[in-house]
UniProtKB/TrEMBL annotation:
The EC number(s) this enzyme carries: 6.1.1.3
GO molecular function, one term: metal ion binding
Protein name as catalogued: Threonine--tRNA ligase
GO terms of biological process kind: threonyl-tRNA aminoacylation
Pfam families: HGTP_anticodon, tRNA-synt_2b, tRNA_SAD
Gene name of the record: thrS
CDD domains (UniProt xref): ThrRS_anticodon (cd00860), ThrRS_core (cd00771)
Cofactor binding note from Swiss-Prot or TrEMBL: Binds 1 zinc ion per subunit.
Binding, Zn(2+): 314, 365, 492
EC supergroup of this enzyme: ligase
Subunit annotation: Homodimer.
Family: Belongs to the class-II aminoacyl-tRNA synthetase family.
Aminoacyl-transfer RNA synthetases class-II family profile domain location: 210-515
């Protein structure tokens, strides 16, 4: 058994120990649902007679230790469906799971001792003594819906950290505490970068400081893409459903789109509509009568005039290409876009900037001949190398292949997957990347780029998707060298991915201490007294003329208060302007993260230093001149 298999077995076994402990503490009326192992431990879902609070954690942990010390045997048993239903007749969730199993399913249960049994495929430890050295700790208790459905029973989910040793558990908890300190929602609020409001759920408000950083990201992306021959376009944010029918998104994505349904007419009189369900998947729900007032508009998304906010840019890029005839001499044609996108998400799935309903991508759709695929994707990977290196993060590649709901000809898919595998083999070597079978987009296979942050966490950001389907749907062509009309291949590409999500990641990666080129404001200017404001304004104008983002405090507040304000915003450099600086045309620099002050620096020298940091996209500050 390798380490990963071992971790799964003992974490899953600890989930059973957790369930047994909770039942012994809270009584036989406890309803226990499911308890899988997860990346750093396990959890179990319950309906309990009373709420579990943090004060109860130690009691549950102690009961688990007591159960483990009993050295009970674990027994696997195969049972029939009827036997299983009888065994769990008082457990509603287990009964539902059993009823959902096929008639010929082999059903297994696991006994821990003689008094606890669970419906489970296993495997598990053979005796509880195998868990003696396991180190675990209750992480938290949260609410969860049965089978993830907000219209079903609400359960109490108890999370458990579980590791093979005390040192590993200690290190993990330390990492979790560090991650909490880096929480982008907390830092974003402290630095005045963004906010959310219930009137636009999952749609961030970018505040002045955050928007400056956002624009710096866009500027850098545009600079890189221009060097690689990309041209930028912009397209309508709301499109008629005809576009989504052609692209195939209507069939695959309609429930994730914000829609303006077409108008079928108006009600002449008040009307009641019977038999309305809030959730069509809940057969036990009582249907309702909905009253609609006279004069109301009757909307119907089946109408031809139905419009939808675009969830992706692809169809607009296809229409842009289609506007004119093309020759093989023009290819590749690279259309980059940063348009706003909207995707509907369940309220429980939204999480700060990591999962939003409104966002932008550093999107691109490149139209190529099949013979150009290899060279073009190699160039995309080189862009990823450059951009991720600029942020000081490493990455690895994953190949995702044909999903079950794929669109198009299977032979085309096979050709596309073979092309991507060849590219990855040459770049990373055979076995130097992961393959996710069946995880591709519905229109083509893809390469996902997983970046690793300062805490070692991985995030999926970049993606390169090969598409033989959308050009076919839109009837795209180019004139080949032999005069025949051929269909181009489309490469979908993003490096940041969602800018919102990428910003959340880099906030946590840098802990809000951004590189100079990315900082919302790069220099804070503090005149010691109001009589120094005139020279401070000269300094500000010189820096602004050089493209440096500057903020200055010309108030008569105490100098230390002004410095503290800019320090709290983590400005890289704070310039203190007094008599000496004004007389000599110099600046005194407080360097972020240290008590160091660099004095008597000519203004021109400091301006050139800032320009250098911006041009080179440096990760580190210059601390001496």
């Amino acid at each position: 058994m390798n380490k990963e298999e071992y971790l799964q077995v003992y974490r899953h076994s600890l989930a059973h120990i957790l369930a047994k402990a909770v039942i012994e503490l809270y009584g036989e009326e406890v309803q226990y649902a499911i308890g899988p192992q997860i990346e750093d431990g396990c959890y179990y879902d319950f309906v309990l007679p009373k709420a579990v609070t943090q004060d109860d954690f130690k009691t549950i942990e102690d009961k688990m230790r007591e159960i483990i010390k009993r050295r009970e045997d674990w027994t696997r048993k195969e049972v029939s469906k009827s036997e299983a239903l009888e065994m769990f007749k008082n457990q509603k969730f287990k009964t539902e799971l059993i009823n959902d199993l096929p008639e010929d399913e082999v059903i297994t249960v696991y006994y821990t001792g003689d008094d606890y049994v669970d419906l489970c495929r296993g495997p598990h430890v053979e005796n509880s003594q195998e868990l003696f050295n396991a180190s675990y700790q209750i992480k938290s208790v949260s609410g969860a819906y049965w089978r993830g459905d907000e219209h079903r029973d609400q359960l109490s989910r108890i999370y458990l950290y579980a590791f093979p040793s005390k040192d590993e558990l200690k290190q993990h908890i330390k990492m979790i505490q560090e991650a909490m300190e880096r929480d982008h929602k907390k830092i974003g609020a402290a630095l005045d970068l963004f906010m959310f409001d219930e009137t636009a759920p999952g749609m961030p408000y970018w505040l002045p400081r955050g928007w400056k950083m956002y624009q710096a990201l866009l500027k850098y992306s545009r600079e890189v893409q221009e060097r690689h021959g990309y041209t930028e376009i912009a397209a309508p944010l709301v499109n008629n459903k005809k576009l989504w029918l052609i692209s195939g998104h209507w069939a695959h994505y309609v429930n994730n789109m914000f829609m303006v349904p077409g108008v079928s007419g108006w009600l002449k009189a008040d009307a009641e509509i019977p038999g309305v369900l809030e959730n069509i998947n809940e057969p036990a729900e009582e249907p309702k009568n909905i009253k609609i007032q006279a004069g109301s508009v009757i909307y119907n998304r089946e109408q031809d005039d139905t419009m939808a906010a675009k969830p992706m840019n692809c169809p607009n890029a296809m229409m842009t290409y289609k506007r004119t005839n093309h020759s093989y001499k023009e290819l590749p044609i690279r259309y980059s876009e940063y348009d706003v996108l909207h995707r509907k998400e369940k309220s429980g799935q939204m999480n700060g900037l990591f999962r939003v309903q409104e966002f932008r991508q550093d999107d691109d759709h490149t139209f190529v001949m099949e013979s150009q695929i290899k060279e073009e994707i190699a160039d995309v990977i080189s862009i990823a190398d450059e951009i991720y290196k600029t942020f000081g993060v490493t990455y690895r590649a994953e190949l995702s292949t044909r999903p079950e709901d794929f669109m198009g000809d299977i032979e085309v898919w096979n050709r596309a997957e073979a092309a991507l595998k060849e590219i990855l083999d040459e770049k990373y070597g055979e076995g130097g990347y992961e393959v996710n079978e069946g995880d591709g987009a519905f229109y083509g296979p893809k390469i996902d780029l997983q970046i690793k942050d300062a805490l070692g966490r991985e995030w999926q950001c970049g993606t390169v998707q090969l598409d033989f389907q959308l050009p076919h749907n839109f009837g795209l062509t180019y004139q080949a060298q032999d005069g025949t009309m051929q269909m181009p291949v489309v490469i979908h590409r993003a490096i940041y991915g969602s800018l919102e999500r990428f910003i959340g990641i880099i906030i946590e990666n840098f802990k809000g201490v951004f590189p100079f080129w990315l900082s919302p404001y790069q220099v804070g200017i503090v005149p010691i007294r109001v009589e120094h404001n005139e020279y401070a304004e000269k300094v500000e104008k010189a820096l602004m003329a050089a493209g440096v983002r500057v903020e200055a405090d010309y108030s008569d507040n105490n100098m230390k208060e002004k410095i503290k304000k800019f320090k709290n915003y983590k400005d890289p450099y704070i310039l203190v302007i007094g008599d000496k600086e004004a007389a000599e045309g110099t600046v005194s620099i407080n360097v972020r993260g240290s008590n160091k002050q660099v004095q008597n620096v000519p203004l021109e020298t400091f301006v050139e230093m800032c320009k250098k940091l911006n041009t080179e996209h440096s990760l580190e500050l210059i601390e001496s001149l």
